[in-house]
Specification:
Bound molecules: fe (iii) ion
CATH superfamily of the largest domain: Nitrile hydratase alpha /Thiocyanate hydrolase gamma
Number of helices: 11
Helix content: 25-40%
Largest sheet: 2 strands, antiparallel
Strand content: 5-15%
Distance between the termini: 36 Å
CATH class of the largest domain: Alpha Beta
Number of domains: 2
Radius of gyration: 22 Å
Structural class: alpha/beta
Length: about 240
């Protein structure tokens, strides 16, 4: 029986609803008695996060409804689909593309995407000659409004180091092999400036509308660790 004051973690619930069942407030145990026993399917970090959230909630420091609203926002409203819409529009609309490259914050804002971690955006276009890649060497700065929350690997020390030392090797790690004649540029995100890579539109995608083009734009292609998908290719899992 877990210690009193911690909340039970059940294995059959999803995400945040699972930690709303308080434990019995007792330290008495009797393992000989039959008892309901559900195993957590959470990894150790998730268990620690949820235990911390439960304690902060119990002490009145955080409002669970506010946390739920934030998570729901990042699960449904904010994510790479926003960035994909921006890229698709730039692919079909030369004026928007020019605006995006001149003032990414304003162009992206015109589509309703902005706010925290997206206050100062810069778009860097890929071409046959130049491929751009984004990293935050210091921590994990990332354009939340258009890409959502950063993937784990983006925050990892190996990526942050290797992206600078061996960007071509990073691309190979991601299954991308560019011609040796392509120049690689690595952009270091900071608290002040966040970057959006504008990937190249696949030649075979010519003629598709914005909606269908957006389906070819992966999160990784907007970080620069991937390329846009060829039409007919299934979107990889996040
Ligand atoms: Fe950072």
């Amino acid at each position: 029986m877990p210690a009193a004051g911690i909340w039970r973690l059940t294995g059959d619930c999803k995400r945040r609803n699972l930690d709303r069942v308080p434990l019995l407030r007792t330290r008495k145990t009797n393992m000989d008695q039959p008892h309901p026993h559900t195993h957590s399917q959470l990894d150790p970090m998730e268990v620690r996060v949820r235990a911390l959230e439960s304690l902060l909630t119990q002490k009145g420091y955080v409002d669970p409804a506010a946390l739920d609203a934030i998570i729901e926002t990042y699960e449904t409203r904010i994510g790479p689909h926003n960035g994909a819409a921006v890229v698709a529009r730039a692919w079909v609309n030369p004026e928007f593309r020019a605006w995006l490259l001149a003032d990414a914050t304003a162009a992206i804002g015109s589509m309703g995407f902005g706010g925290r971690q997206g206050e100062h955006m810069v778009a860097v276009p890929n071409s046959e000659q130049v491929h751009n890649m984004v990293v935050c060497t210091l921590c994990s700065c990332y354009p939340w409004p258009i890409l959502g929350l950063p993937p784990v690997w983006y925050k990892s020390a190996p990526y942050r180091a290797k992206a600078v030392q061996d960007p071509r090797g990073v691309l190979r790690d991601f299954g991308v092999d560019l011609p040796g004649t392509t120049t690689l540029r690595v952009w270091d995100s900071t608290a002040e400036v966040r970057y959006l890579v504008l990937p190249r539109m696949p030649a075979a995608a010519k003629g598709l509308d914005e909606h269908d083009l957006a389906r070819l734009v992966t999160r990784d292609s907007m970080i620069g660790t991937g390329l846009a998908l060829e039409p007919g290719t299934a979107m990889p899992p996040p």
